[in-house]
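Researcher: For the annotation table, I need structure tokens for Delta-aminolevulinic acid dehydratase. Please keep the output clean. Sequence:
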Amino acid sequence: MLFPDFRGRRLRANKNFRRMIRETKLSCDDFILPLFAIEGKSVKKPIDSMPGHFQLSCDHIVTAAKEACDAGVPAIILFGVPDKKDPLATRAYASDAIVQKAVQAVKEQVPDITVITDVCLCAYTDHGHCGVVENGIIDNDASLDLLAKTALSHVQAGADMVAPSDMMDGRVGEIRQTLDEEGFSHIPVMSYAVKYSSAFYGPFREAAESAPQFGDRKTYQMDPANSLEAIREATMDVEEGADIIMVKPALSYLDIIYRLKEEIDLPIAAYNVSGEYSIIKAGEMMGWVNAKDLIMETLLSIKRAGADLILTYSAIEAARELNK
């Protein structure tokens, strides 16, 4: 097809033509809103590096969940900021810990929203790593039982789905087996299967108070240079029983999202992470960019790459824009 016989502008000539032939469409159904739960009452502590987001006590978590539900967002994912930390992350799996209490509060007061919980140990360990540390080394196999205990405690509190983000080998299988044995075979697992060791996580570590106290996470999070490794990691988690596969971060890894969509016959989630959000918000504060338009274009690109679900701090803002 060549000009002048073909004129691509014909079908771009007005907004209705553009709507009718649009190949990729965002929906509120695509979004999952991350929230940070902290102990206390009436606590709404601003996260400086993430304008518009806060560490929230359970009463405010409920309010945020209602706001998301009213905007049409179908799910939230909860991260915990515990009242104390120790080497074995005991507040990750205690029945009266912060995520467990937040789950119960939301399920009681906002029953129409789906509650997903992040399963990891980094925010709960005094060393800030995602597993048990022995002699300065993360012990993969010793970490699996604690991760499974954490997932089980979340489900017993009422969580609808668990999402292990630790990147320990074998954790999906351990969690799946534990849930099945305890009568929760109906609970799905959304695995952070492809989680890169990324510079885009900085604001999140402030929000969750989870920065490592020594070293880094490169021995368990993936090298940003690798793509074949992503296929291996995702395939392993599928074989262990994952129901949804996640890629994190999203924007620098759109090619990975696309490859996984071609290779894996399961829903693909992508995490539009804190650094991606904060860069846009910083530009907005400086008056350099139109944040609303950037947010919608960013989310559209993630969906176009193949993501079925998008975890995004812009979920409510984007949902309201779509509802206009």
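Researcher: And a one-line annotation?
Model: The first strand starts at residue 31 and ends at 38.
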